[in-house]
Specification:
Distance between the termini: 59 Å
Helix content: 40-55%
Number of strands: 9
Number of domains: 2
Number of helices: 11
Strand content: 15-25%
Shape: globular
Oligomer: single chain
Length: 305
């Protein structure tokens, strides 16, 4: 099979196969095979039990407009004494924006994530989702492992909010894309059209429907603004973003749920930093500041300060 031959060529570092390493960090490597019809090869150490589920899910999400990649082939193999999952995926064109999106780009991004959200809701009723972690339980577990710090203080306030508990415990739960940061969203733009596609559907979590737009606004738009300019709160226009979402949203509820992304990511980062005896205080501080600032801005907009 051609896909297996491509995988073996990458492992052998065969220079006759033109490829580019797109990502090499931790236990994951991602290669683009630079043939006339490019493909992606993803090699990741760890739990490989979800490949069949991922293939079925991505097939539903890609639909006719190729919103996401499709998994063309996957296998599990031992490398050394560790299990690795290997996937061959379709290549998603475009690239992340290097700036905060303008109005038309913002509309296109919100519209694309709305389409993703609708497809995830449908998939939630068709696929076995018991293995997907519940976001509230995950945050509670992370919370119990973190020492006192600004992120834990913010988490305490959020977890004690009566309205938050009402929203997070709604009976109808669906699959949510948990990390819509800007590098996962690729843009292809011509004079007449803006195409938006997603390159990484991970991590997935279970939560109420309102959580998906909240994560989009918090992860992509607010943190993007803070990454570009720490003082750029004025760039972030929540009212405009709410108007682009095709269904009506309660602004106060969205703001409340927007806190969940920086709180969850912040708790996870604090745990990782605490486990590293060589943590550089400056790196630690620079990693936490945008998350803490985003929580502060969300609370300022909502009047919860």
């Amino acid at each position: 099979m051609e896909y297996q031959q491509n995988i073996e060529a990458v492992f052998r570092e065969d220079q006759s196969l033109p490829y580019t390493i797109l990502y090499d960090k931790g236990n994951t490597k991602v290669y683009r095979i630079d043939t006339p019809n490019p493909i992606i090869i993803r090699v990741a150490e760890g739990d490989t039990s979800s490949h069949q589920f991922q293939a079925a899910l991505l097939e539903e999400l890609a639909a006719q407009d190729e919103l996401t990649a499709r998994i063309l082939y996957w296998e599990i193999r031992e490398i050394g004494d560790k299990p690795y999952g290997i996937q061959v995926q379709t290549y998603i064109p475009g690239k992340p924006l290097g700036h905060y999106p303008n109005k038309e780009q913002s509309k296109a991004i919100v519209g694309a994530i709305y389409n993703l959200h609708k497809r995830l809701c449908i998939a939630s009723s068709r696929l076995e989702i018991s293995s997907i972690p519940d976001i509230h339980k995950t945050v509670q577990q992370l919370y119990s492992l973190v020492d006192n710090c600004p992120i834990k203080a913010a988490a305490t306030k959020l977890l004690e909010q009566k309205r938050y508990l009402e929203l997070i415990s709604q009976t109808e739960q669906c699959i949510i894309h948990g990390d819509l940061w800007y590098k996962n969203i690729h843009i292809e733009q011509t004079q007449n059209e803006i195409d938006v596609r997603l390159v990484d559907i991970d991590p997935l979590i279970l939560g109420p429907k309102i959580l998906q737009p909240a994560i989009l606004f918090s992860s992509y738009f607010l943190l993007t603004a803070l990454t570009i300019d720490p003082n750029a709160q004025e760039i972030f226009d929540l009212d405009g973003l709410l108007s682009y979402w095709p269904e009506p949203l309660n602004k106060k509820d969205v703001l409340l749920m927007m806190q969940l992304f920086p709180v969850g990511v912040g708790l996870l980062k604090e745990i990782r930093f605490s486990q590293d005896p060589h943590t550089n205080p400056e790196i630690h501080r620079s990693a936490m500041e945008p998350l803490e600032r985003s929580i502060q801005i969300i609370c300022e907009i909502s009047g919860m300060t």
